[in-house]
Amino acid sequence: MTLMTVSSNLGAALAHAAERLRAGPDAAAASAALEAAVLLAHTLGTTRARLISHAELGVDRHALERYRALIERRARGEPIAYLTGRREFWSLELAVTPDVLVPRPETELLVERALALCAAPAATVADLGTGSGAIALALASERPGWQLIAADVSAAALEVARANAAALSLERVEFRQGSWYEPLAGERCELLLSNPPYVAADDPALSAPPLALEPRLALTPGADALAALRVIASGAPAHLEPGGWLLLEHGPDQAAAVRRALVATGLRSVRSHRDLAGLERMTEGQHGQI
Fold it and tell me: What is the CATH code of the structural domain delimited by 98-286?
Protein backbone atom coordinates (compact mmCIF):
# COMPACT_ATOMS: atom_id res chain seq x y z
CA MET A 1 0.00 0.00 0.00
CA THR A 2 1.53 3.34 -1.05
CA LEU A 3 1.24 5.70 1.92
CA MET A 4 3.54 8.74 2.01
CA THR A 5 3.56 12.51 2.28
CA VAL A 6 0.22 13.39 0.85
CA SER A 7 -1.79 15.49 -1.48
CA SER A 8 -4.96 13.88 -0.05
CA ASN A 9 -5.93 11.34 2.58
CA LEU A 10 -7.88 8.15 2.00
CA GLY A 11 -11.17 9.50 3.31
CA ALA A 12 -11.04 12.62 1.17
CA ALA A 13 -9.99 10.69 -1.92
CA LEU A 14 -12.92 8.32 -1.51
CA ALA A 15 -15.40 11.14 -0.92
CA HIS A 16 -14.29 13.09 -3.99
CA ALA A 17 -14.31 9.97 -6.17
CA ALA A 18 -17.80 8.96 -5.04
CA GLU A 19 -19.06 12.46 -5.80
CA ARG A 20 -17.60 12.25 -9.31
CA LEU A 21 -19.19 8.86 -9.93
CA ARG A 22 -22.59 10.07 -8.80
CA ALA A 23 -22.47 12.55 -11.65
CA GLY A 24 -21.75 9.78 -14.18
CA PRO A 25 -23.88 7.02 -15.76
CA ASP A 26 -26.61 5.44 -13.69
CA ALA A 27 -24.66 2.20 -13.27
CA ALA A 28 -21.80 4.01 -11.58
CA ALA A 29 -23.98 6.47 -9.67
CA ALA A 30 -26.06 3.72 -8.06
CA SER A 31 -23.06 2.27 -6.23
CA ALA A 32 -20.69 5.23 -6.24
CA ALA A 33 -19.24 4.76 -2.76
CA LEU A 34 -18.63 1.05 -3.26
CA GLU A 35 -17.02 1.49 -6.67
CA ALA A 36 -14.85 4.35 -5.40
CA ALA A 37 -13.57 2.05 -2.66
CA VAL A 38 -13.03 -0.88 -5.03
CA LEU A 39 -10.95 1.24 -7.39
CA LEU A 40 -8.89 2.83 -4.61
CA ALA A 41 -8.18 -0.57 -3.07
CA HIS A 42 -7.13 -1.79 -6.52
CA THR A 43 -4.88 1.24 -7.05
CA LEU A 44 -3.15 0.85 -3.69
CA GLY A 45 -3.07 -2.94 -3.59
CA THR A 46 -4.97 -3.12 -0.31
CA THR A 47 -8.44 -4.00 0.98
CA ARG A 48 -11.58 -1.92 1.28
CA ALA A 49 -11.64 -2.67 5.01
CA ARG A 50 -8.20 -1.10 5.43
CA LEU A 51 -9.28 1.99 3.55
CA ILE A 52 -12.18 2.49 5.94
CA SER A 53 -10.22 1.79 9.09
CA HIS A 54 -7.34 4.09 8.06
CA ALA A 55 -9.23 6.90 6.38
CA GLU A 56 -6.88 9.52 7.85
CA LEU A 57 -3.79 8.10 6.14
CA GLY A 58 -2.34 9.90 3.16
CA VAL A 59 -2.10 8.84 -0.45
CA ASP A 60 1.02 9.27 -2.54
CA ARG A 61 0.51 11.89 -5.26
CA HIS A 62 1.31 9.46 -8.10
CA ALA A 63 -1.08 6.86 -6.73
CA LEU A 64 -3.72 9.54 -6.44
CA GLU A 65 -3.23 10.49 -10.09
CA ARG A 66 -3.65 6.86 -11.16
CA TYR A 67 -6.76 6.61 -9.03
CA ARG A 68 -8.31 9.75 -10.47
CA ALA A 69 -7.67 8.44 -13.99
CA LEU A 70 -9.56 5.23 -13.16
CA ILE A 71 -12.42 7.20 -11.64
CA GLU A 72 -12.72 9.30 -14.80
CA ARG A 73 -12.84 6.19 -16.97
CA ARG A 74 -15.51 4.67 -14.73
CA ALA A 75 -17.49 7.91 -14.74
CA ARG A 76 -17.57 7.70 -18.54
CA GLY A 77 -19.14 4.25 -18.27
CA GLU A 78 -16.21 1.84 -18.64
CA PRO A 79 -17.02 -1.43 -16.82
CA ILE A 80 -15.29 -1.60 -13.47
CA ALA A 81 -14.12 -5.14 -14.29
CA TYR A 82 -12.07 -3.77 -17.19
CA LEU A 83 -10.51 -1.20 -14.87
CA THR A 84 -9.46 -3.72 -12.26
CA GLY A 85 -8.96 -6.59 -14.71
CA ARG A 86 -10.86 -8.90 -12.37
CA ARG A 87 -14.40 -10.17 -11.89
CA GLU A 88 -15.83 -12.69 -9.45
CA PHE A 89 -18.12 -15.37 -10.86
CA TRP A 90 -19.39 -18.39 -8.93
CA SER A 91 -16.83 -17.62 -6.19
CA LEU A 92 -14.02 -17.77 -8.76
CA GLU A 93 -11.89 -14.71 -9.42
CA LEU A 94 -11.48 -14.35 -13.18
CA ALA A 95 -9.23 -12.14 -15.25
CA VAL A 96 -11.30 -9.97 -17.58
CA THR A 97 -10.19 -7.88 -20.55
CA PRO A 98 -12.07 -5.91 -23.24
CA ASP A 99 -11.76 -9.05 -25.43
CA VAL A 100 -14.49 -10.75 -23.37
CA LEU A 101 -17.86 -9.89 -21.90
CA VAL A 102 -17.93 -9.04 -18.23
CA PRO A 103 -19.49 -12.09 -16.52
CA ARG A 104 -22.90 -11.24 -15.05
CA PRO A 105 -24.52 -12.69 -11.92
CA GLU A 106 -27.56 -13.85 -13.92
CA THR A 107 -25.34 -16.20 -15.93
CA GLU A 108 -24.74 -18.20 -12.76
CA LEU A 109 -28.25 -19.56 -13.32
CA LEU A 110 -26.85 -21.64 -16.20
CA VAL A 111 -24.30 -23.17 -13.83
CA GLU A 112 -26.95 -23.87 -11.19
CA ARG A 113 -29.22 -25.63 -13.66
CA ALA A 114 -26.39 -27.66 -15.20
CA LEU A 115 -25.40 -28.99 -11.77
CA ALA A 116 -29.03 -29.77 -10.96
CA LEU A 117 -29.68 -31.59 -14.23
CA CYS A 118 -26.55 -33.75 -14.29
CA ALA A 119 -25.31 -35.37 -11.10
CA ALA A 120 -23.08 -37.88 -12.89
CA PRO A 121 -19.46 -37.85 -11.67
CA ALA A 122 -18.25 -38.14 -15.27
CA ALA A 123 -19.74 -36.28 -18.23
CA THR A 124 -18.73 -34.43 -21.37
CA VAL A 125 -19.94 -30.84 -21.27
CA ALA A 126 -19.50 -28.04 -23.81
CA ASP A 127 -19.69 -24.30 -23.21
CA LEU A 128 -20.30 -22.61 -26.57
CA GLY A 129 -19.09 -19.02 -26.77
CA THR A 130 -17.07 -19.36 -23.58
CA GLY A 131 -15.61 -15.83 -23.47
CA SER A 132 -13.66 -15.52 -20.22
CA GLY A 133 -14.37 -19.19 -19.51
CA ALA A 134 -16.72 -18.31 -16.65
CA ILE A 135 -19.32 -21.04 -17.21
CA ALA A 136 -16.89 -23.84 -18.08
CA LEU A 137 -14.54 -23.03 -15.21
CA ALA A 138 -17.37 -22.77 -12.68
CA LEU A 139 -18.55 -26.24 -13.71
CA ALA A 140 -15.01 -27.61 -13.66
CA SER A 141 -14.57 -26.32 -10.12
CA GLU A 142 -17.74 -28.12 -9.00
CA ARG A 143 -17.39 -31.34 -10.99
CA PRO A 144 -13.71 -32.30 -11.22
CA GLY A 145 -14.60 -35.53 -13.04
CA TRP A 146 -16.35 -33.78 -15.93
CA GLN A 147 -14.59 -33.20 -19.22
CA LEU A 148 -15.25 -29.59 -20.19
CA ILE A 149 -14.98 -28.22 -23.73
CA ALA A 150 -14.82 -24.43 -23.88
CA ALA A 151 -15.30 -23.11 -27.41
CA ASP A 152 -15.24 -19.62 -28.87
CA VAL A 153 -14.82 -18.10 -32.31
CA SER A 154 -12.52 -15.43 -30.83
CA ALA A 155 -8.87 -16.38 -30.40
CA ALA A 156 -8.38 -13.42 -28.07
CA ALA A 157 -11.21 -14.59 -25.83
CA LEU A 158 -9.76 -18.10 -25.68
CA GLU A 159 -6.43 -16.67 -24.52
CA VAL A 160 -8.22 -15.04 -21.59
CA ALA A 161 -10.11 -18.25 -20.79
CA ARG A 162 -6.95 -20.38 -20.95
CA ALA A 163 -5.16 -17.99 -18.61
CA ASN A 164 -8.05 -18.18 -16.16
CA ALA A 165 -8.02 -21.99 -16.21
CA ALA A 166 -4.27 -22.03 -15.56
CA ALA A 167 -4.54 -19.52 -12.73
CA LEU A 168 -7.28 -21.61 -11.09
CA SER A 169 -5.48 -24.93 -11.74
CA LEU A 170 -8.54 -26.30 -13.54
CA GLU A 171 -6.92 -28.76 -15.90
CA ARG A 172 -9.88 -30.75 -17.25
CA VAL A 173 -10.94 -27.99 -19.63
CA GLU A 174 -10.14 -28.19 -23.33
CA PHE A 175 -10.21 -24.96 -25.33
CA ARG A 176 -11.24 -25.02 -28.98
CA GLN A 177 -11.70 -22.27 -31.53
CA GLY A 178 -14.67 -22.17 -33.86
CA SER A 179 -18.22 -20.94 -34.33
CA TRP A 180 -20.87 -22.75 -32.29
CA TYR A 181 -20.81 -26.45 -33.20
CA GLU A 182 -17.76 -26.33 -35.49
CA PRO A 183 -15.43 -27.42 -32.65
CA LEU A 184 -17.71 -30.38 -31.82
CA ALA A 185 -17.71 -32.16 -35.19
CA GLY A 186 -18.93 -35.73 -34.64
CA GLU A 187 -19.04 -35.39 -30.84
CA ARG A 188 -21.93 -35.65 -28.39
CA CYS A 189 -22.23 -34.25 -24.87
CA GLU A 190 -24.38 -34.77 -21.82
CA LEU A 191 -24.73 -31.00 -21.47
CA LEU A 192 -24.52 -28.11 -23.90
CA LEU A 193 -24.51 -24.59 -22.46
CA SER A 194 -24.32 -21.18 -24.06
CA ASN A 195 -24.68 -17.51 -23.26
CA PRO A 196 -24.71 -16.39 -26.92
CA PRO A 197 -25.16 -12.90 -28.36
CA TYR A 198 -28.86 -12.02 -28.23
CA VAL A 199 -29.10 -8.23 -28.65
CA ALA A 200 -30.35 -6.90 -32.01
CA ALA A 201 -27.75 -4.84 -33.88
CA ASP A 202 -30.02 -1.78 -33.93
CA ASP A 203 -30.73 -1.85 -30.19
CA PRO A 204 -29.77 1.57 -28.73
CA ALA A 205 -28.28 -0.17 -25.69
CA LEU A 206 -25.31 -1.23 -27.82
CA SER A 207 -24.33 2.41 -28.30
CA ALA A 208 -24.32 3.29 -24.60
CA PRO A 209 -22.04 2.23 -21.73
CA PRO A 210 -21.38 -0.38 -20.62
CA LEU A 211 -22.32 -2.43 -23.72
CA ALA A 212 -20.67 0.06 -26.07
CA LEU A 213 -17.33 -0.85 -24.48
CA GLU A 214 -17.76 -4.64 -24.53
CA PRO A 215 -16.96 -6.86 -27.55
CA ARG A 216 -19.74 -6.43 -30.10
CA LEU A 217 -19.23 -9.95 -31.46
CA ALA A 218 -20.28 -11.34 -28.08
CA LEU A 219 -23.32 -9.08 -27.80
CA THR A 220 -25.17 -9.13 -31.11
CA PRO A 221 -25.68 -11.72 -33.86
CA GLY A 222 -26.91 -9.01 -36.24
CA ALA A 223 -30.34 -7.67 -37.13
CA ASP A 224 -32.08 -10.80 -35.84
CA ALA A 225 -31.53 -10.95 -32.09
CA LEU A 226 -32.51 -14.63 -32.02
CA ALA A 227 -30.21 -15.78 -34.83
CA ALA A 228 -27.49 -17.36 -32.66
CA LEU A 229 -30.02 -18.89 -30.29
CA ARG A 230 -31.79 -20.56 -33.24
CA VAL A 231 -28.52 -21.93 -34.65
CA ILE A 232 -27.61 -23.47 -31.31
CA ALA A 233 -31.10 -24.88 -30.78
CA SER A 234 -31.28 -26.46 -34.24
CA GLY A 235 -27.87 -28.10 -33.93
CA ALA A 236 -28.34 -29.48 -30.44
CA PRO A 237 -29.84 -32.90 -31.28
CA ALA A 238 -26.78 -33.83 -33.34
CA HIS A 239 -24.47 -33.06 -30.41
CA LEU A 240 -26.40 -34.28 -27.39
CA GLU A 241 -26.36 -37.76 -25.94
CA PRO A 242 -29.81 -39.31 -25.45
CA GLY A 243 -31.20 -37.67 -22.34
CA GLY A 244 -28.72 -34.81 -22.59
CA TRP A 245 -29.68 -31.18 -21.99
CA LEU A 246 -29.28 -27.88 -23.79
CA LEU A 247 -29.21 -24.76 -21.60
CA LEU A 248 -29.40 -21.28 -23.13
CA GLU A 249 -29.22 -17.81 -21.64
CA HIS A 250 -31.30 -15.19 -23.44
CA GLY A 251 -32.95 -11.82 -23.02
CA PRO A 252 -35.85 -11.57 -20.55
CA ASP A 253 -38.31 -10.90 -23.37
CA GLN A 254 -37.10 -13.83 -25.50
CA ALA A 255 -38.09 -16.82 -23.35
CA ALA A 256 -41.25 -17.74 -25.28
CA ALA A 257 -39.46 -17.58 -28.64
CA VAL A 258 -36.58 -19.71 -27.35
CA ARG A 259 -39.00 -22.29 -25.96
CA ARG A 260 -40.65 -22.52 -29.37
CA ALA A 261 -37.26 -22.96 -31.04
CA LEU A 262 -36.31 -25.81 -28.70
CA VAL A 263 -39.65 -27.56 -29.18
CA ALA A 264 -39.38 -27.16 -32.95
CA THR A 265 -36.01 -28.89 -32.99
CA GLY A 266 -37.43 -31.88 -31.12
CA LEU A 267 -36.28 -31.24 -27.56
CA ARG A 268 -38.63 -32.14 -24.74
CA SER A 269 -39.15 -31.06 -21.13
CA VAL A 270 -38.62 -27.51 -22.38
CA ARG A 271 -38.90 -24.89 -19.66
CA SER A 272 -37.60 -21.46 -18.73
CA HIS A 273 -36.21 -20.31 -15.40
CA ARG A 274 -36.19 -16.94 -13.69
CA ASP A 275 -33.17 -15.15 -12.25
CA LEU A 276 -33.07 -13.47 -8.84
CA ALA A 277 -34.77 -10.42 -10.34
CA GLY A 278 -37.72 -12.58 -11.41
CA LEU A 279 -36.88 -12.39 -15.13
CA GLU A 280 -36.93 -15.40 -17.45
CA ARG A 281 -33.26 -15.47 -18.38
CA MET A 282 -32.54 -19.07 -19.40
CA THR A 283 -34.33 -21.95 -21.10
CA GLU A 284 -33.49 -25.65 -21.15
CA GLY A 285 -34.58 -28.66 -23.15
CA GLN A 286 -33.77 -32.38 -23.17
CA HIS A 287 -32.83 -34.57 -26.11
CA GLY A 288 -34.91 -37.74 -26.35
CA GLN A 289 -33.83 -41.23 -27.29
CA ILE A 290 -32.44 -41.77 -30.80
Answer: 3.40.50.150
